[in-house]
Amino acid sequence: MCQELCRSEFDKQYFGCDVSKTMNFLTEQFCKKGFTERDLSPLTVRELSDIRHTCLIGCRPDCIKLKYPYTVQERENKLHLETGFKDRKAQILVVLRNLDVKILSHEPFYAESELFSYIGGLVGCWLGISVFTFTDVFEKFVKMVVVLKGNYRRKREQAKIRNRKTEKGITEKRRKEKRNRKSPSDVKEV
């Protein structure tokens, strides 16, 4: 298909119409009887050939090669009525018996639900646990992290409160000591 499209694009540029009868989407693109080449410069023809060659190189090989069963029948060539000589023509008759059309469509490899079940099956086979067990373990882990974080915050708050209390206690002791201290004028000489 890719190669046909490359050739088709070249023909449209070179002849102004499509010479091949395959891969055309519009009948207006077909070349009419008696068409001639366009008058193009050799440089333009070379550029078009290079573009076609690059396009053909970029194509992957055909994924399916269609093969048709055929039979060859050889017949005696009849004499031409007017000249009496055998004509040098071959007649090819192509009969297609089955005209079924195959529609190719793309479907994603997995839908979301299929992907979830596929991953769950792999985890179950490889690790020996089910998805439900895995989610239960994950849920317990999250709860444990939340509890530990709460404990850490509580301990930090308690430590701050203790520090404040000890600082208050120290400052109150100092105040009392200052009050209880006697000034040198208060001291009596004996």
Automatic annotation (TrEMBL):
Keywords: Ion channel, Ion transport, Membrane, Sodium, Sodium channel, Sodium transport, Transmembrane, Transmembrane helix, Transport. Residues 158-190 are annotated as: Disordered. One of its GO terms (cellular component) is membrane. The keyword Mitochondrion does not apply. It is found in: Membrane. The keyword Oxidoreductase does not apply. It comes from the Eukaryota. This is Uncharacterized protein. GO terms for molecular function: sodium channel activity. It holds the Pfam family ASC. Belongs to the amiloride-sensitive sodium channel (TC 1.A.6) family. Residues 158-174 have a biased composition (Basic and acidic residues). It comes from Araneus ventricosus (Orbweaver spider). Coiled coil: none annotated. It is a multi-pass membrane protein.
